[in-house]
Every structure is written in structure tokens, then in C-alpha cells.
Design brief:
Elements lengths: L3 E2 L6 E4 L18 E6 L1 H4 L3 E5 L7 E3 L20 E8 L7 E2 L1 H6 L9 E5 L10 H5 L3 E2 L1 H9 L4 E4 L24 H9 L3 H4 L5 H8 L4 E3 L12 E6 L9 E3 L2 E5 L12
Parallel strand pairs: 6-8, 7-9, 8-10, 10-11
Antiparallel strand pairs: 1-2, 2-14, 3-4, 5-11, 5-13, 6-12, 12-14
Helix pairs in contact: 4-7
Length: 267
């Protein structure tokens, strides 16, 4: 883990993204990232990669268009959604659990109206091409998403492979699924709960957030543990991609350890 200090301002900066490239974990049913050197130093004296990728790989940002017909694409999201003050909430969760509105309300420091909210369950430590990481991850409940909408969040980020619980997605018994055929049975065996009863609405948390115009970042990682339970200023750098539903994103946080400097409203 490391913190980078800007020599001019003294601001400390923390990486919140996983490294991206060949071999990164890919969602079940989607192709891996494919990369090769179109030109290379040994032959041309230049390096340039050629890439074929699904946009939902690594740490990535989702536009409302991802799940909302006629929603904003990446190019249409207002720039102020990608920069601002917010909070990193530590809400540890085990496999198959959900983050609820009650969890968000109890987390400290409290969420301020208009915050960027980063939810850390601890699942980023399991980031890998594994059944556990993709199939057993926690996710937001419907009431948690509704709570975040009421807080008018600028952006919501999470350290899990997706915002919703896996059983609320096409990995489970929903449209286009099940992407992981054993998942519903394994969930029922592990929890004693009926997946169709507990997670009967498809992508409900994500649709709630994106339907309110709130972009989301999935698979937060990097050195996010350094900021658990702290406020900071965040910056995300997605592509200006017309008709784009998602793209890999660099996500960072910055803060002043002295507490003397903050990003004010400008009023």
C-alpha cells in the first residue's frame, strides 16, 4: 500500500483502481481482454497495443444507459458527477450477504447530501477469476439503493464485482441466465434461503441508481483500505464515449492530512 503526496499542494493521493490488462478477471459468459502489440520496440522502436475488450472489466464506470433505455451515455454524464467530496464506508460482508439501508445509515462517518459514496465490503481482497469472487459476492439491497438516491449521491462505487447481489443478476435464474448454473442451489444450501424470494427483482439496485442518473463504479480496489471510514475528495476519469454504456476507469482519492484544505462550493 502507498500514498503519493503532491509536492505543490501537500495533498495525499490514494489509488482506488485495480490494475487493468491482459488476464484481468472477466464476468462469466463474457470474453477475456485480448491484447497484442501491434508495433513493438524490438521491431519498430515504438510500442502500441491493439485491444479487444468488453467494457465491464476491471475497475469500471457504468453510465445510466447500461440498464436504462434512453438513459445518459458516458459522453452525456455531467462532468461534476466525476469529481467531488465524499466518504469511504467500511461495511464488511461475507459471501451471499447484502448491504442494506440500515448498514448505510449506521456507517461512520455519515453520508452527506450530494456525496460520492464508496462502499467497501472487503470483497476487493478476493479479486480473481474464481467462482467465489463472481458468484458469492455481497451486493446492495433495493432499500440500500433507494437510500442512496434519497441522499442525492453524485456517484456510487463498490468493491464488489457488481452493484447487485449475484442472485439478482443474470448469473442467477433471471433473464439471460443462469450464467452460473449451480449458483442458486449453492446459495440455498449455504443460506437456507430461497433465491427467487430473496432476489426476485433483476438488477434492482443497479436500475434504481442508474434510473436516478447516478453513475456507478464497480470493482473498486487499489489502496482503498487506507481510507476506510474517512472522508476525501474523489476523481474518476471515464471516456467521453458516445453511446457508451461503460468503460474501464481510473479512480483516485485525495485528502489533506492537515485538514486545512478542502474543496469548497465556490459560492
Amino acid at each position: 500500500m502507498s500514498i503519493v503526496t503532491d509536492p505543490y499542494t501537500g495533498l495525499q493521493m490514494v489509488e482506488l483502481s485495480h490494475e487493468w490488462g491482459h488476464g484481468v478477471p472477466s464476468y462469466p459468459g463474457q470474453d477475456d481482454v485480448k491484447m497484442f502489440r501491434a508495433v513493438k520496440h524490438s521491431q519498430h522502436g515504438v510500442l502500441a497495443w491493439k485491444i479487444n475488450t468488453v467494457m465491464h472489466t476491471g475497475t469500471h464506470l457504468n453510465a445510466p444507459l447500461h440498464l436504462i433505455q434512453r438513459g445518459a451515455d458516458l459522453a452525456a454524464i455531467p462532468e461534476d458527477r466525476f469529481f467531488g467530496n465524499g466518504v469511504v464506508l467500511s461495511i464488511p460482508k461475507k459471501g451471499y450477504e447484502v448491504v442494506t439501508a440500515k448498514d448505510l445509515e449506521a456507517a461512520k462517518p455519515g453520508v452527506v447530501q450530494g456525496d460520492i459514496v464508496v462502499i467497501v465490503t472487503g470483497w476487493h481482497h478476493k479479486y480473481s477469476d474464481s467462482l467465489e469472487y463472481f458468484g458469492e459476492s455481497p451486493g446492495l439491497s433495493k432499500d440500500a439503493a433507494e437510500w442512496l438516491v434519497k441522499k442525492d449521491c453524485k456517484l456510487v462505487a463498490m468493491d464488489t464485482q457488481q452493484i447487485d447481489h449475484p442472485l439478482a443478476t443474470s448469473l442467477g435464474p433471471h433473464r439471460g441466465g443462469p450464467g452460473m448454473r449451480r449458483l442458486a442451489g449453492e446459495y440455498q444450501k449455504a443460506t437456507g434461503l430461497d433465491p427467487k424470494k430473496e432476489h426476485g427483482e433483476w438488477n434492482v439496485a443497479h436500475k434504481t441508481l442508474l434510473g436516478a442518473g447516478i453513475p456507478t463504479i464497480e470493482q473498486v480496489g487499489g489502496d482503498v483500505d487506507l481510507l476506510l471510514g474517512k472522508r476525501a475528495t474523489f476523481a474518476a476519469t471515464p471516456w467521453k464515449f458516445q453511446y457508451g454504456d461503460a468503460c474501464p476507469v481510473r479512480f483516485i482519492a485525495m485528502f489533506d492530512p492537515s485538514g486545512n484544505l478542502k474543496i469548497d462550493s465556490g459560492k
